[in-house]
């Protein structure tokens, strides 16, 4: 063979050998880099496989610690960025299989996660397994990720909690869970097509199954839910709430999620094989939730609750301390909420056993805000900030065979069905150690409305102290600075006087005149005969004569308020009590 031809042949063989070995070198390099990144991030990977031609990397048996919980993924397929023939697209489609996520007592299992348009190429891998910032929290790494969508055809969860001798186990299934337009760990929209849950409760202290009464048998509550959607979900911050405490750095409020809506909730509870109750809800919706990190991670607080109430051998003497420990844990979680509002509409409840009872609630509303809401905010929020909740139209029928005196009187007055509403709105003035009750009201259809507002003083954290002596001292220090009561007649007093008059063979007008005279003379006579008490008696008398609206206000003369210690000094004598108050009353 000529020398030139021989040289060309050897060059061709050498090139062929290099081409043949290049995929192997690329494969080994990719697998080594991924293994190192995983190790430095605290993760373990049972198997790594790289396709040198496409840059596709498959991870098997991935396990990653998440706070006090853990994340396990059976299989992940994605781009590793090392490819002899890289794909043209910038975004990547990622598939995860057999995902298992444990948070405290809850475990979530996902057979398959399909992520479209993900940033999980080699840079995405670096964001999760970042060797240059080993120890960076998962939430911070997750916040670097973006995707067009993430679809989970099915999500299963299981949770078990034991409090004393009682164990509650919950299992559930979510179908077609889709997160859309994920940017830096925040999803524009998350939807769930339907869901179902089953919760069983068993008490180990109760007799064996063969000896159990109906009430002692294990209970099971099953529920189904329709379409659920929630907007603007900060998934990365949610992970932080569960896995990170506030620390000493900045802790600004974050919009955790926006408006949400859940349609069609149905729930049934059974004791053994016997149906006990049924609940139907047409809709649950809300304005969203804004919060900051609590002092301790939520997972840690959940573990505290389990530990505090999971001791079956706890003595009665330790139970009050446990209760206040639980209040502190719950209080820490609640203190991380800056604002939120929700409404539950179309509630129907049927109790089957032990006594049949049915009632409906038009709506239950609740709102919380640390500050006065902005103009145009949802009416669910309290107008001045604080807490607001309301039950609208609690409707039920009075049992005709009732033995209770009050129920019999209502039936005699013509009330066969009742529709009641209850509302509360108040806020805590921490700087002034005051509890401001703006509205606490009860109203009824064809009955009327009673409203109370008040200002309480010396409201301190000691009221929730775990030390009983400290709690009692704080309770004794409470004062009332002012109190206002408004009664509006919407038909109740007309029916009341008609019923009483019929019992006494009198006309309603004659009975009103009689009672008005008693109030005019009796109220000031009982309360000491001051000018304020005479005005009060006169207002009550006018209201009885013509029931419309009665307003009564009491203000403590001492700016610090009127407290239990002040009451004790009066010996409970009405005249001495009223000397420390300014009373005003008006009938309209």
**Major sheet summary line:** 23 strands, antiparallel
> What portion of residues belong to β-strands?
35-45%
| pLDDT < 50 runs, ≥5 residues | 3-33, 81-89, 129-133
Cα distance, first to last residue?
A: 124 Å
Helix-strand makeup class: alpha+beta
Question: Could you give a quick summary of the protein structure above?
Answer:
This protein is an alpha+beta fold and 588 residues long. The chain is built from 13 helices and 23 strands.
Describe this structure in words.
The protein has 588 residues and is of the alpha+beta class. It folds into four domains: 1-136, no CATH class; 151-293; 296-335, no CATH class; 382-588, no CATH class. The chain is 28% helix and 44% strand. It has a 23-stranded antiparallel beta sheet that branches. A hairpin with a 2-residue loop joins strand 6 and strand 7 (166-183). The longest helix is centred in the N-terminal third of the chain and has 38 residues, at 3-40. The N and C termini lie far apart (124 Å).
